Automatic annotation (TrEMBL):
Cofactor annotation remark: Binds either 1 Fe or Ni cation per monomer. Iron-binding promotes an acireductone dioxygenase reaction producing 2-keto-4-methylthiobutyrate, while nickel-binding promotes an acireductone dioxygenase reaction producing 3-(methylsulfanyl)propanoate.
GO biological process: L-methionine salvage from methylthioadenosine
Catalytic reactions of this protein: 1,2-dihydroxy-5-(methylsulfanyl)pent-1-en-3-one + O2 = 3-(methylsulfanyl)propanoate + CO + formate + 2 H(+); 1,2-dihydroxy-5-(methylsulfanyl)pent-1-en-3-one + O2 = 4-methylsulfanyl-2-oxobutanoate + formate + 2 H(+)
Pfam families: ARD (PF03079)
Molecular functions per Gene Ontology: acireductone dioxygenase (Ni2+-requiring) activity; acireductone dioxygenase [iron(II)-requiring] activity; iron ion binding; nickel cation binding
Binding sites annotated in the UniProt record for Fe(2+): H90, H92, E96, H135
Assigned keywords, A-Z: Amino-acid biosynthesis, Cytoplasm, Dioxygenase, Iron, Metal-binding, Methionine biosynthesis, Nickel, Nucleus, Oxidoreductase
Similarity comment: family membership: Belongs to the acireductone dioxygenase (ARD) family.
Pathway: Amino-acid biosynthesis; L-methionine biosynthesis via salvage pathway; L-methionine from S-methyl-5-thio-alpha-D-ribose 1-phosphate: step 5/6
InterPro entries: ARD (IPR004313), ARD_euk (IPR027496), RmlC-like_jellyroll (IPR014710), RmlC_Cupin_sf (IPR011051)
EC number in record: 1.13.11.54, 1.13.11.53
Protein name (database record): Acireductone dioxygenase
Membrane topology: Peripheral membrane protein
């Protein structure tokens, strides 16, 4: 099973599609991500339509809605603006579930010390970000990703841009995961 690649980011504010490794690199373990509430599975994207493991995950977590999104300049209207919106730091009231079928991109999340962690998802990575975690998304330099988006019930696309410390999802996240990390996340 391939391990999800994640690392602490530098604070250089140039092209978000670059890896932004620290010098020297400082990688983040799957256990550290799990302590923040991030879940990951490595699946076979070539058989997603009849994947028993995917069906089991969907059934266990109640994901009854699914759609596919091709994100690239050729297939998305207002591509640059959409990418800019995805890269604005935000939370959601529900989990964010994405299964990468082709291509690659970056989810960035905040840790307990408010540092950015970059998670590189590639074909086969199914990732779940908990409701209330500060995050953002961008493509890498490949400029292409095909994602399966999963939801419980009808899809809700609402992003709540930071700061959202009083949002119920953020408060619940802090109770559930802030304490597990040893201290609450700082307010922005």
């Amino acid at each position: 099973m391939a391990i999800l690649q994640a690392w602490f980011m530098d604070d250089v504010n140039v092209n978000p599609q670059l890896p932004h490794h620290l010098n020297p690199n400082e990688f983040v373990s799957p256990e550290y991500l799990a302590a923040l509430g991030v879940l990951h599975w490595k699946l076979n994207p070539d058989k997603y339509e009849e994947d028993e493991e995917l069906e089991k995950i969907r059934a266990n977590r109640g994901y009854n809605y699914m759609d596919l999104l091709d994100l690239c300049p050729e297939k998305v209207e207002n591509y640059e603006q959409k990418l800019k919106n995805f890269y604005t730091e935000h939370i959601h009231a529900d989990e964010e579930i994405r299964y990468c079928l082709e291509g690659s991109g970056y989810f960035d999340i905040r840790d307990k010390d408010d540092r950015w962690i970059r998670i590189w998802i590639k074909a086969g990575d199914l990732i779940i970000l908990p409701a209330g975690i500060y995050h953002r998304f961008t493509l890498d330099t490949s400029n292409y990703i095909k994602l399966m988006r999963l939801f419980v019930g009808e899809p809700v696309w609402t992003a709540f841009n930071r700061p959202q410390e009083e949002h119920p999802a953020r408060r619940n996240y802090m109770i559930s995961f802030g304490q597990k990390m040893g201290m609450p996340l700082k307010a922005h």
